[in-house]
Amino acid sequence: MSTSGEGAGSKPGVKPDIKGFLPDEMRDFLVEMGEPSYRATQVFSWIHRKGVSSLDEMTNIPLALRRRIGEVARITNLEIISRRLGAEGTVKYLLGLADGNCVEAVRMKYGYGTSACVSTQVGCKMGCAFCASGVGGFVRNLGPGEIVDQVLKMNADFAPAPQEGSRVGWVVLMGTGEPLDNYGASVKALRILNAKEGLNLSFRRMTVSTCGLVPGMRRLAEEGIPVTLSVSLHAPTDDLRDEIMPINKRYPIPELMEAASFYAGRTGRRVTFEYALIRGVNDGPEQASQLAGLLRGMLAHVNLIPLNPVTEKGFQRSSRETTMRFFAILKRARIPVSVRRELGLDIDAACGQLRRRYCR
Questions:
Q1: Which residues of 294-333 are buried (b: 16+ CB within 10 A; e: fewer)?
Q2: CA 217 to CA 212: how far, in whole Å?
Q3: pLDDT at 34
Q4: At what angle do helices 38-48 and 23-32 cross, to 10 degrees?
């Protein structure tokens, strides 16, 4: 039985993180210790439904068993290093990991409920020209428990003074890192969040973002979990995308679009294409028309994003007028399109910004 997934917990000699166990893995773990299977439901519920990060808090688990579990396993417990409150209920968290690294997560309040944008890696390998995630390079993958705990920490943070709709109801793997580059841990975290013994979040309320790792997109299509696939496109031609997204040289747009169509056909879910508008780079009428032609006939939706400027990168966001002109061209071409509501500009909400400030 493999219980560690991918990430820090998979290293030899490191105690397994039971926060990263699926319900059946928790059952196998405890049955192998000679315990009845119902103990697994109790422990899993304590961690994921009640949000505890200490065995001492599991009051209906015998003390002797808690001690035995503690001898052979651990429970990830991220530390809230800082939180920044933004407009309209947005909160950006800087969360400390056990090894001294840190990651970011963002809680966003919408009319339909609360969404958690969480990280899957410390740093990023992809090197997108406008993104703060990869500034400073890639450090390591997160384990599934570390991904899940970002959601649990947001829920716990609002538990003392709960507001209507304050518990996380939607999860987006769109923080620091490339989820499909940490495939096993990312998918396992989604399955843990979906487990009825825990938060019981619907897969249809989960989104996986990718910069275009084609093999991972195809693998996800076969996974049997109806999550939304969000593709960071940001350019309608290979020449332009090569300049701002190095991954395009490995998986160019024709391969990317074929994989996106495969995903939509296999799952029946439309694919979201994220398009960050960068002043003077990808925001002209010509690019809008090219994008419309690229997506015509696909089960797709375009999410136009006002760029969160990153000091180290030097790019600027498009004007409101330019954004709406781009939007209008797509609308006239009958491409489903929306402009993302701006949340978090005042709290360094672009992926990697807060971590960079802290780590300097």
A1: bbeebbbbbbbbbbbbbeebebebbeeebbeebbebbeee
A2: 8
A3: 96
A4: 130
Minimal CA–CA distance to 131: which of 273, 16, 25, 245? Answer: 245
Question: Is position 351 annotated as part of the catalytic site?
Answer: yes
Q: What is the pLDDT of residues 158-207, one digit of tens each?
A: 877 666 667 999 999 999 999 999 999 999 999 999 999 999 999 999 99
pLDDT confidence tier of residue 309, bands split at 50, 70 and 90? confident
CB-CB neighbours of 37 under 10 Å: 12
- Mean pLDDT of the 285-306 span: 97
Six token digits for residue 64:
């002797």
How far, in Å, CA of 121 to CA of 311, rounded?
22
Residue 104 annotated among the catalytic residues of the structure: yes
What percent of the chain has a predicted confidence (pLDDT) above 70?
89
> Catalytic: which of 35, 104, 146, 178?
104
Structure confidence at residue 2 (pLDDT)? 40
Residues 6+ apart with CB under 8 A from 334: none
The overall pTM is greater than 0.85: yes
Kindly report the three-state secondary structure assignment for every residue of the chain: CCCCCCCHHHCCCCCCEHHHCCHHHHHHHHHHCCCCCHHHHHHHHHHHCCCCCCHHHCCCCCHHHHHHHHHHCECCCCEEEEEEECHHHCEEEEEECCCCCEEEEEEEEECCEEEEEECCEECCCCCCCCCCCCCCCCCEECCHHHHHHHHHHHHHHHCCCCCCCCCEEEEEECCCCCHHHHHHHHHHHHHHHHCCCCCCCCHHHEEEEECCCHHHHHHHHCCCCCCEEEEECCCCCHHHHHHHCHHHHCCCHHHHHHHHHHHHHHHCCCEEEEEEEECCCCCCHHHHHHHHHHHCCCCEEEEEEECCCCCCCCCCECCHHHHHHHHHHHHHCCCCEEECCCCCHHHCCCCCHHHHHHHC
- Segment 333-358 mean pLDDT: 66
